[in-house]
Amino acid sequence: MPEHLAREWAPDFPLDLAGVLAPLRRGAGDPTFQRAGEGIWRVGTTPDGPATTVLRRLPDGAVRALAWGAGAQWALDGLPALLGADDRPEEFVAHHPLVADAHRRLPGLRFGSSRRVWDQLVPAVLEQKVTGTEARRSWRELCRRFGDPAPGPVPAGMRVPPTPAQIRAVPDWEWHRAGVDSARRRAILACAAVAHRLEKAAELGGHEGRELLRRVPGIGVWTAAEVAQRAWGDPDAVSFGDFHIPTVVGWALLGRPLDDAGMLDVLAPYVPQRQRAVRYVEVSGFRRPRFGPRFSPRDYRAM
């Protein structure tokens, strides 16, 4: 077995390990995130190179992490932040019974910080204006065809997310093959050109970090929020512009659909933790009424 580094860390708060890490998973077939046996496996880039980590919960409540690759130490150093040690859910005040109930029932649900913008930015751009099925398929294609094999004794098929250099080298026809249209391709390439500068967004955090990301053509409010939620655990970064979220929030809290402007008003009392309120709505078990057909995926590879 390849040499690895190890760390054990005991949180001093309730921790839902799978729930905290779930937003980092891009579908069941994500080559960078798998559950195997009793462990949760992640592969990512770091400032020092690629890293694979596997996390397991121990009987005493601590988390044991093993890591492989050039970035193993960087990954282990960030274990507490990844699992939400910097988050402050205890400061959240609920203003609706449904939100209050979810907050009470799910004390272990926190916002974790991956501390890595690039790994969150590419899949977020892929999710712009397409179905989740389309975006996940494109992410799998790019990782499997252009990402390196994951370091360590990983479950079959795990890959490192393509680096900025690898993304810049993808030929035009391979983007088409991966089902990525020209607008999303241009946005990803624009991010790759300044990727080293964009990592500073995680250091800035909050509104400043999101604004830094939005300087890149093709990165809007929605994409910046999706990255912020994962890269630095931003509890106020709401994904305005989402096809579903305003409707779900509206039905859950008011009994009717909302647009972005309406959701902005409804969430105003939750500043600076508006996204936490949205997360509680999403995990509360509430299901909005369905009145029409679902949005059908498009296959850009046939266009």
Automatic annotation (TrEMBL):
Keyword DNA damage among record annotations: yes
SUPFAM superfamilies, alphabetized: DNA-glycosylase
Keyword line: DNA damage, DNA repair
Domain of life: Bacteria
Keyword DNA repair among record annotations: yes
GO biological process assignments: base-excision repair, AP site formation; DNA alkylation repair
UniProt-recorded Gene Ontology molecular function terms: alkylated DNA binding; DNA-3-methyladenine glycosylase activity; DNA-7-methylguanine glycosylase activity
GO cellular component, one term: protein-DNA complex
Gene3D superfamilies: Hypothetical protein, domain 2
Name this polypeptide is given: DNA-3-methyladenine glycosylase 2 family protein
